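Q: Give me the 3D complex with protoporphyrin IX containing FE.
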Amino acid sequence: MEILKVCFILLSTASFLWLSESVTLTSDYYQKSCPEFRQIIQQTVTNKQITSPSTAAGTLRLLLHDCLPNGCDGSVLVSSTPFNKAERDADINLSLPGDAFDVVVRAKTALELACPDTVSCADILAVATRDLVTMVGGPYYNVLLGRRDGRVSEASTIPNALPLATSPMSEIIDIFTSRGFTLQEMVALSGAHTIGFSHCKEFSAQIYNYSKSPPYDSQYNPRFAQGLQKACSGFENNPTLSVFNDIMTPNKFDNSYFQILPKGLGILKSDHGLYNDWRTRPFVEAYAADENKFFSDFARAMEKLSNYEVITGNQGEIRHRCDAIN
Ligand code: HEM
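A: Here is the predicted complex, encoded as structure tokens.
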């Protein structure tokens, strides 16, 4: 009897382990339950990007801000309630653009009509980001499916989980490496700054304090700094003032971001930091010289970021609306 009992415990533990390990993301997750999945997302993002060209950059940043703090579970999409201050109301997330949330909401609405209660908001965000990156010229990468939506979203979990533009490089590096990303992956991912904007308040403290003669590699190119001062004049009264992250090809996903850094044409202190720090400079130089290498490393790092600490199986839920926990 005792032996039977032990066998039963061993067997049930083994099957539990097997079950929990077998639930992973797959590429054909919605093939039967929602065959229109890919087409609906593709159509939604195409329409949105054409009417609001800043959507691609905003959505890419939204994915980072969803995934890095506590996994890709769509928790950044949840709105605050009178009882809970949600992640999206954490200070650093207040500048996430409405268009990025909107593209996810649009895709979710269309998907709920086609296949109710089936597709997670976390999967929508991951696939929409990939499609948008590709649309603006970036590399295609594979996004596995089957993420579930998280049931927790708390603003208090965000500080220290995302890099600030003014953080020392060691802190920025720590945020990525403590989550299992290599330095090379961190630099490749930062190539995301080849598109999109930064608000003046993110870098204004640095643009009055720059070296007046070459080499400019530690700070801003002086003429560029003067240009930024002009573009940002009066930003205290107009907080919407912003400038392109990559002044050369702001709307095109390419390796020009890495080429402008050595010229002192980066916008954020952290952009300059990537070139100035001996640990990250070799990767900046490699990507500046070879766009194919940047694209293949970026694609691999995005796949990894999109899968970071996902929840699957019977964890979490499929949210009815992306902005509210069921
Ligand atoms: C290395 C550390 C990083 C820091 C300190 C940083 C910081 C920032 C800041 C301050 C902005 C400006 C936000 C605004 O003013 O609205 C920004 C924009 C952006 N960031 Fe980063 N970022 C980092 C890495 C990344 C990574 C790894 C990605 C994506 C994988 C990313 C994607 C973006 C995008 C696409 C934008 C433009 C957003 C838009 O146009 O709405 N960033 N980042």
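A quick observation: The two ends are 45 Å apart (CA to CA).
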